[in-house]
Amino acid sequence: MLNVRILATLLTTLLLLTSASSSWAYRIGFSQVTTTEPWRVLFNKQLRAEAMKHPDIQLFIADGQDRTEKQVADVQSFIQQKVDIILLAPKESAGLTAVVKEAMEAGIPVIVLDRKINGDDFTQFIGGNNLEIGRQAGRKALALLGGEGMAQGNIVEIWGGMGSTPAHERHQGFVDALQKEKNLNWLVDRQDGDWKQDKAYNIMSNALRAHPKIDLVYAHNDPMAFGAFLAARDAQREKDIFFLGVDAIPKEGALWVKRGFLTATFVYPAPGVKALQEALRLLKGEKLEKHIDLPTQTIDKSTVDAYLNANR
Q1: 197-210 vs 222-234: helix crossing angle, rounded to 10
Q2: Gap between the Cα atoms of 229 and 209, Å rounded
Q3: Which of 34, 45, 83, 291 is most buried per CB count within 10 Å?
Q4: pLDDT digit string, tens, across residues 123-179
Q5: Alpha carbon distance 71, 89 (integer Å)
Q6: pTM: predicted TM-score of the whole model, two decimal places
Q7: How far apart are CA 73 and CA 19, in angstroms?
Q8: What backbone torsions phi and psi does residue 262 show, to the nearest 5 degrees?
Q9: Exposed, middle or buried: residue 53 (CB in 10 Å: 0-12, 13-18, 19+)?
Q10: Pick from 164, 138, 30, 116: nearest CA to 293
């Protein structure tokens, strides 16, 4: 009897889904690099919430499980399903470039989010201005270490994924803001934390053992900055070091600034809402800009309360 009831329930659900699908005008596939990082969780949450406002949209979200080959397979699946548009937040640039070209050649527009691919064979890119974020981080570091022309100190930079454009742009913007300073020293060379807190902890632990004086850590996201802070705290050296991160998720990076763990973080807005809005514009025949940069903001002790109040 139980099996019969379960079967009846499944059949009813299937009928309801089949009936509902007739009202969907657009099918949108989204390949997300991972669904475990807090910023990605926020990204997906905002995207789903925006999709709920549009009953004519059927949204598919595929978890890339932090693997390029999985994302390639997911995008190829969307191509085979002949979705109307593909949204892609790639793990890294080179490995996703060819499959985006494959989708474009199949007549399916692709909006690339957060991390860029190689070349310009895509419909639109939406993401934070990582060069500007790096520059803001550099200017903050400059102020913390003594000011223009007088800054001095030892810096540890912890990179995000080496194969991703945000990591390179956050590095370049930071370096550009500090390039005129003669008394700043980079203590470690291109240490890849892969956006992970535990990897940053290990990188910082090694740096602390090797260098008796570290003045500032700049990590390419907040989890890595927090990992570096934890390593310094375990070594009882956290009070002598400034920690800068990126993302400013209210319940993560911004909260760590509020609690005094991080010195500052920089807003990296999730592009999900804007992506869906742009996808609808495209599907309704409107022309899109090739690139859209989302704005940033410095969150430190002077701005964190207002930021948290505005983002409850």
Answers
A1: 40
A2: 14
A3: 83
A4: 999 999 999 999 999 999 999 999 999 999 999 999 998 888 899 999 999 999 999
A5: 9
A6: 0.83
A7: 29
A8: -105, 145
A9: exposed
A10: 116
